Amino acid sequence: MCAVEPAAEKPERMVWIFKVLLFVVALVVFMEGGARLVLVIHPLRKRIAGYDNSSYRLQWIGLHKIHLEWTGQYAIYHPIRGWTLKPNIKNMSVFDGKALNSNSKGLRGTTGYEYSRTPGKQRILVLGDSFTFGEEVSDDETYAHDLESALPNTEVLNLGVQGYGHDQMLLYLRDEGVKYHPDVVILGFAYLDIYRNLWTFFAYAKPRFKVDAGRLELTNVPVPTPEHVLAVEPYRPKALDLMVMLRDKLLWNFGKKEVEARDLTRWVLREIIATTRSAGAVPVFVYLPVYEEIQQPSGNSIAAKPATPPLPEREEYVKSICQEQGISCLFLGPAFRAEVERGRDFNSRGHWNPQAHKLAAEHIRDFLLKNNLIHDGSGGPPLPGARGR
Length: 389
Known about the structure:
Blueprint lengths: L8 H32 L1 H7 L4 H13 L9 E4 L3 E4 L6 E3 L3 E3 L21 E6 L2 H4 L9 H8 L3 E5 L7 H10 L8 E6 L3 H4 L11 E5 L2 E5 L6 H7 L5 H16 L2 H23 L3 E6 L23 H15 L2 E4 L1 H9 L12 H17 L19
Parallel strand pairs: 5-6, 5-7, 7-10, 10-11
Antiparallel strand pairs: 1-2, 3-4, 8-9
């Protein structure tokens, strides 16, 4: 026979369970209230915030409240890539008086390129972030524009978008870039972009690839709309946000995130190369020196970004991918630093100035011609002001 629990013990057990539940609820409320208090106090949040999804989402929320967007007034929501350049921009004044235009397909500049090839013209696509897009310069001062001017028998299409990671560049190439039937696809590689591949939120919400069973799997698509992000924000557990921030700080400090970023980026870059080749084009990587890389070849960090390894290690990482995949790679750092030693100023504190774009375009042109990736019957005159003082 089964023993019968005394009736008097049932109320006691129920009281004990109630007390435990009450304690758990009180603990959760205390943690959530404390986290919300910490995150609403700007000096405290600034000390805790780092390089993670929660920090970037809260930063976007704060900017949006004061009618500012990290992606710029010239960006628009995109369901797959998160954001992209608005189409049909006409002479927008940006960057303290610089001119910004975009064509009907959202490429920077005034030229309306068709998907079909222009007879007698070779076609180059350029992928990249804000340095390729041309933050702080006008349409006709970007290295993509200068490259087209230096190679008269080419069309150079600038698919650079501010804030992009390599994952978004891959999606842009897949969904739109291959439609242009390029001969060459140049990836303007900035090392800081490898970290963006880790996040589902940076300048705004974005997609993220994961490696599953030896292949890339796309997640966080469709990307939530700004209205959705704002609508659910009051209900997001801020205690979880605080835990994400503290956890990722530890992972960055122990170098775990650096390893994760490199591993994931290697997969993404391989796919960019494979997509380019499947479109019948030649992939080319161009390493763009940014911030202190222009002046300090052994610097250990990139401004406002996670701590990075010394420059030689960054370049060796890219070289290893180029060698593994058998593609051409150009490293612009030595040319930039040589000009800096001669007294040139390329704005190592922010985005490149027009002189830096011209120098980059000249060396990319020379590299393409030397490696027979592009033919130029005219010989291509030097870009004015690109070399020398």
